[in-house]
């Protein structure tokens, strides 16, 4: 019972907090560009609006198109259960490890890519093809990151990996590779661009182009939760923290503040990267992720050398 | 029963054969109806039964002579399955490639068995096993290489895979399902039985060699599959890939055996065997689904298909399950075995030292790449075949297949889920098979915490609970659906796909399989060597009447290995013809000369 309650609490926290980081990144980007920009809370307003709107479904679409948002949200939330937020490790259900996390993300992506093909629009097909292309190149780099980090700890458990060890050259390299992977996975410049609907550049947006209303809200929610999960994972490697412990309210408040600040720092890094480089051609994505792969290998070698 | 052997390894392979063959046989009732005449149907059943018998014999005999007899019987009978559809010239061609390649493989096996006989003076497995202990290292290496080449040809390890994408698709679909699902597994049986069980994998480089070949097979198989638009050929290339994944498990077992790490050897072997049975199930399922599509539409070219999910909802659902399983998505069986294989790499890396860690890491990364590419390939295969709108008249008039075919597919689809959810129980059974194969005592080892949680090793905090995962996924999906239903104020309208104001999109505007795989074609162009030709046909300078576009990829193994080899054989055959001019006098002279030489030889030596 306690496990279920804690799990639900964790999921609610993820749902509640995650859009904030999307808004934050947009805000930072706008400020650096000397624009006022939208409110930090705009993603929440968007979700609220989408939930109250009607929906248009293509007459070509089959049940895959209608089911995909639920698969996407379910798989993303399951992933969120594997990555601990505030909850003390050990109190969450024992679902799986870091490797299982990779496969769970793949489940949501698989359905979204199918749904994109389902409406028969070329945009969808284009997005689907590009997304699967990028995702398949992400996998080896991501695996090397997990490999390098778990070599030091001797386990692939996410809770164990995201805390309680010191920062080394190996973990910095791994975090660098994971950062590049995160850029690709969360549809950020230079791999993808969330701000455009230009057919030459869009990847994720092209896939979800046919969605509207509540279905789109689910997909947007899933995207921001996924983004937060990636940020948390990087934060766990670069800024390891111990779990809060029973040391009083003040201590806990400081801990929570530091916990969130770490994610904000990573959001800042993403925002700065996004405004300082241009979007790459799709085929250059292979070079970009190849670089992540090489960083991953360096991380593994460093881990073997013990530095 | 003096000639047979029913140890856990043999029984395991027998049950794999049975699991896939039964539903395929049921499926063939509906599949052959209308496809072939009554006499030919009877012939198909006869061949099928002979084929199953031969495969059963291969995995149970305990004697190399009988093994060869069964092996040849299996190859010959499956040749008749490949050429079963005699209407097509392609079948005959595919059959020829198959029979030539399989006999080259058998030749290597015969050589290996003869060398073994020289030391054991017996054809019996147990006698050979005893004799192998005293075999010199050089001979052992030779025997290993001969066995690997011989069985590798049957398994379809790159670069010996050349026959597989021709032969498997050409057979009737229920036979393709058995050939791809089970027959190539008998080669894995051979490798486990002869290399690990009899020879004993003592050399480190054996394991490394198998691992490297396996990872090459994975990547080459999946990259070719991505380029393929013939649905059965695509599946055949995936067999090359999955044999690679199975061999990663088996190769790791050899690797750890030679390093004297019994726990890891058994664990890797379990991973390999688990993927073996999983691949048999989901590849069998996918071939049956592909057969249903072929039966309903009359084409295997996915560029001409589309929208089949509406006319053939059952086939589509089963294909989707198979596609999810082969893409290693939870909660289906492929997920568990790929997780185990990756975990074997991780656990191994925790235990070995130095550069071996990096080696295992890079192999693991390549396996991850394979997984990603396979998922992309099955988004293509399922999406283009079943989703959107029909791309040609073939797909418009498709009808759902009859009950017997659906039943066969349903059975395998249910197994796909069962082997995903029941992973912990399967691992317990497989641990005994792995123990029998490697000869390691496993009583002190622990492979799963309880019936729901898989946890490789006590002391490591690594776990996977597929039933719980499935439960959570399902519950969250239902919760999402409930929120969707309850929160809805707005109406849902059905309207056409957004067409940029172009007015009425046609199926010709849909994305094609060629377009889908284009990023991969470009990213892997160093290997695929794509060739592209565009031609504008003009009425006048300003008006282009039509546009021709042609693209294909170069099959490097065929072009640089097989074609030159074939050319050399023909050249030498031509030069041999000079001594065969058709004169009876000359032939008598040859006989006389050879008799003379023989007499001299016998007297002199």
Portion in beta strands of chain A: under 5%
| Cα end-to-end separation of chain A | 43 Å
Computed over alpha carbons, the radius of gyration of chain B is 26 Å
Low-pLDDT windows of residues of chain A:
none
Quaternary structure of the protein: heterodimer
The profile of the biggest β sheet of chain B is: 2 strands, antiparallel
Key traits:
heterodimer, A: 307 residues, mainly alpha, B: 605 residues, 4 domains, two-stranded antiparallel ribbon, 24 helices, 3 strands, 71% helix
Question: What features would you describe in this structure?
Answer:
With 307 residues, chain A is mostly helical. Chain A has one domain (2-305). Chain A is 70% helix and 1% strand. Chain A has eleven helices and one strand; from the N terminus they run ααβααααααααα. Chain A has helices spanning 2-32, 42-52, 63-82, 98-118, 122-153, 158-161, 169-185, 204-207, 213-238, 248-276, 285-305, and one strand at 55-58. The longest helix of chain A is centred in the middle third of the chain and has 32 residues, at 122-153. The N and C termini of chain A lie far apart (43 Å). By secondary structure, chain B is mainly alpha-helical. Chain B has four domains: 1-200; 217-490, no CATH class; 513-552, no CATH class; 562-604, no CATH class. Chain B contains 24 helices and three strands. Chain B has a two-stranded antiparallel ribbon with strand order 2-3. In chain B, a hairpin with a 5-residue loop joins β2 (531-538) and β3 (544-552). The relative contact order of chain B is 0.08.
Would you summarize the structure shown here?
Chain A has 307 residues and is mainly alpha-helical. Chain A contains 11 helices and 1 strand.
Topology:
The complex is a heterodimer of chains A (307) and B (605).
Chain A: H1 2-32, H2 42-52, E1 55-58, H3 63-82, H4 98-118, H5 122-153, H6 158-161, H7 169-185, H8 204-207, H9 213-238, H10 248-276, H11 285-305
Helix pairs in contact in A: 1-9, 1-10, 2-9, 3-4, 3-9, 4-5, 5-7, 5-11, 7-9, 7-11, 9-10
Chain B: H1 8-32, H2 38-58, H3 64-82, H4 89-120, H5 125-132, H6 137-155, H7 164-170, H8 173-199, H9 204-227, H10 231-258, H11 262-297, H12 308-311, H13 313-326, H14 333-351, H15 355-386, H16 393-396, H17 403-421, H18 423-438, H19 466-487, E1 492-495, H20 513-516, H21 518-523, H22 525-528, E2 531-538, E3 544-552, H23 556-576, H24 584-604
Antiparallel strand pairs in B: 2-3
Helix pairs in contact in B: 1-2, 1-8, 1-11, 1-17, 2-3, 3-4, 3-8, 4-5, 4-6, 4-7, 6-8, 7-10, 8-10, 8-11, 9-10, 9-15, 10-11, 10-14, 10-15, 11-13, 11-14, 11-17, 11-18, 13-15, 13-17, 14-15, 14-17
């Amino acid at each position: 019972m306690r496990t279920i309650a804690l799990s639900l609490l964790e999921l609610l926290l993820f749902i509640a907090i995650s859009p904030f980081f999307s808004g934050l990144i947009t805000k930072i980007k706008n400020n650096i560009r000397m624009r006022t920009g939208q409110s930090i809370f705009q993603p929440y307003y968007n979700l609220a609006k989408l939930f109250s709107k009607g929906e248009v479904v293509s007459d070509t679409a089959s049940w895959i198109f209608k089911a995909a948002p639920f698969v996407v949200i379910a798989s993303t939330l399951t992933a969120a259960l594997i990555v601990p937020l505030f909850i003390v490790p050990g109190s969450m259900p024992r679902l799986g490890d870091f490797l299982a996390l990779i496969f769970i993300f793949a489940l949501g992506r698989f359905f979204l890519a199918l749904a994109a093909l389902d409406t028969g629009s070329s945009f969808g097909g284009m997005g689907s093809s590009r997304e699967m292309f990028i995702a398949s190149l992400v996998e080896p780099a991501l695996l090397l990151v997990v490999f390098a980090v778990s070599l030091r700890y001797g386990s692939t458990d996410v809770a164990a990996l995201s805390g309680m060890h010191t920062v080394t050259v190996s973990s910095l390299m791994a975090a660098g590779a994971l950062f590049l992977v995160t850029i690709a996975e969360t549809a950020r410049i230079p791999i993808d661009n969330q701000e455009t609907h230009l057919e030459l550049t869009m990847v994720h947006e092209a896939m979800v182009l046919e969605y509207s209303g509540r279905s789109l809200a689910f997909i947007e929610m899933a995207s921001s939760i996924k983004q937060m999960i990636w940020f948390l994972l990087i934060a766990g490697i670069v800024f390891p923290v111990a779990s809060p412990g029973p040391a009083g309210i003040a201590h806990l408040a400081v801990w929570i503040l530091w916990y969130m600040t770490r994610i904000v720092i990573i959001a800042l890094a993403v925002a700065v990267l996004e405004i300082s480089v241009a979007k790459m051609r799709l085929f250059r994505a292979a070079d970009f992720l190849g670089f992540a792969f090489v960083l991953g290998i360096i991380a593994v070698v460093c881990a073997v050398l013990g530095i | 029963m003096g000639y047979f052997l029913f140890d856990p390894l043999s029984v395991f392979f027998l049950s794999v054969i049975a699991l896939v063959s039964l539903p395929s046989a049921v499926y063939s009732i509906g599949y052959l109806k209308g496809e072939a005449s009554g006499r030919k149907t009877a012939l198909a059943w006869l061949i099928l039964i002979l084929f199953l018998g031969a495969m059963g014999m291969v995995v149970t005999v305990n004697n190399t002579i009988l093994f060869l007899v069964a092996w040849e019987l299996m190859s010959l009978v499956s040749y008749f399955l490949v050429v079963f559809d005699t209407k097509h010239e392609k079948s005959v061609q595919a059959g020829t490639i198959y029979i030539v390649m399989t006999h080259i493989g058998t030749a290597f096996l015969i050589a290996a068995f003869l060398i073994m006989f020289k030391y054991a003076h017996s054809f019996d497995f147990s006698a050979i096993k005893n004799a192998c202990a005293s075999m010199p290292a050089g001979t052992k290496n030779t025997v290993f290489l001969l066995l690997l080449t011989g069985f590798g040809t049957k398994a379809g390890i790159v670069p010996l895979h050349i026959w597989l994408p021709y032969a498997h698709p050409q057979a009737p679909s229920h036979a393709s399902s058995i050939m791809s699902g089970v027959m190539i597994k008998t080669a894995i049986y051979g490798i486990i039985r002869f290399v690990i069980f009899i020879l004993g994998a003592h050399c480190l480089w054996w394991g490394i060699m198998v691992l490297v070949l396996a990872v090459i097979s994975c990547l080459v198989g999946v990259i070719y599959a991505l380029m393929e638009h013939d649905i059965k050929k695509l599946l055949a290339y995936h067999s090359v890939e999955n044999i690679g994944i199975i061999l990663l498990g088996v190769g790791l077992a050899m690797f750890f055996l030679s390093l004297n790490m019994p726990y890891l050897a058994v664990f890797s072997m379990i991973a390999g065997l688990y993927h073996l049975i999983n691949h048999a199930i989901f590849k069998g399922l996918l071939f049956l689904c592909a057969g249903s599509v072929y039966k309903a539409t009359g084409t295997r070219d996915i560029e001409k298909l589309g929208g089949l999910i509406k006319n053939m909802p059952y086939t589509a659902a089963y294909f989707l399950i198979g596609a999810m399983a082969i893409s290693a998505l939870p909660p289906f069986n492929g997920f568990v075995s790929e997780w185990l294989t990756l975990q074997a790499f991780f656990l191994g890396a925790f235990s070995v030292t130095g550069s071996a860690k990096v080696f295992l890491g890079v192999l693991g990364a390549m396996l991850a790449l394979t997984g990603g590419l396979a998922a992309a390939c099955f988004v293509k295969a399922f999406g283009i075949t079943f989703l959107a709108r029909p791309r040609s008249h073939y797909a418009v008039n498709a009808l759902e297949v009859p009950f017997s075919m659906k039943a066969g597919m349903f059975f395998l689809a249910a197994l796909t889920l069962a082997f995903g959810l029941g992973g912990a129980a399967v691992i317990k059974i497989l641990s005994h098979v792995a123990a029998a194969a490697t000869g390691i005592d496993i009583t002190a080892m622990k492979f799963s915490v309880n019936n729901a949680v898989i946890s490789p090793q006590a002391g490591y905090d690594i776990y996977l609970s597929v039933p719980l995962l499935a439960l959570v996924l399902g519950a969250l999906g239902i919760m999402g659906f409930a929120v969707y239903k309850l929160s809805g104020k707005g109406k849902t309208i059905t309207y056409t796909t957004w067409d940029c104001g172009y007015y009425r999109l046609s199926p010709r505007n849909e994305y094609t399989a060629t377009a889908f795989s284009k990023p991969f074609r470009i990213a892997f162009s160093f290997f695929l060597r794509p060739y592209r030709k565009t031609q504008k046909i003009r009425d006048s300078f300003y008006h282009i009447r039509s546009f021709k576009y042609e693209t294909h990829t170069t099959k490097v193994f065929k072009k640089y290995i097989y074609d030159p080899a074939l050319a050399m054989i023909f050249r030498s055959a031509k030069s041999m013809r000079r001594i065969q001019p058709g004169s009876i006098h000359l032939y008598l002279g040859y006989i006389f000369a050879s008799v003379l030489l023989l007499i001299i030889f016998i007297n002199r030596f």
